[in-house]
Amino acid sequence: MTPEEIRxxxxxxxxxxxxxxxxxxxxxxxxxxxxxxxxxxxxxxxYGIQHVPALGHRLDxxxxxxxxxxxxxxxxxxxxxxxREGLVEKTYWAxxxxxxxxxxxxxxxxxxxxxxxxTGWRMQVDGTGQESVTDxxxxxxxxxxxxxxxxxxxxxxxxxxxxxxxIGCPIIGDPLYGTPSDGAPMQLxxxxxxxxxxxxxxxxxxxxxxxxxxxxxxxxxxxxxxAEAR
Length: 230
What we know:
two-stranded antiparallel ribbon; Pseudouridine synthase; 14% helix; 230 residues; alpha+beta; globular
């Protein structure tokens, strides 16, 4: 991305944090072998201060949408505290192959990281794993395809992806837990963040528009007014 392109993705900016709209297919930080990453463009988001922004949390490579950055050590520390204490309200949109039995509910399934020499690592439901909780509600469906709004109450790796697959609603395009999508990106989007950054002010709120690769699915799914309202 050019400096202008990464700045166009800024959804919120104040003295402590930034919230950016992460694109699909770009990891938030470089892996052990290097390569392109979102972090490589943070130098263009200093806006006149000496500090380069730093990640306040993570999104998977193929997940799009709201990502919070600390603009300085104070902002980064504040973000870390809010996420650790579960005070950040996170909303995700997922397009799944399959419709939940109930239109809304809670998925309370512990998750554990497992690995093998042949398939690498992944997360799986395991009673000995870490507590993992996701609330959800169905926004619409069409011909077995469903738009689900998810509210993760814990922040485990791949949590929404594994939880939805576990209830028979794998995310379309998910290479690990989902269904084939003819090469389309994974249909998981960090729709919004709400952060009580300062007690004396209203919470910071940012919302990211659905990415273009979600549009064909959203146009087919009858959401009524539920999705538009959010």
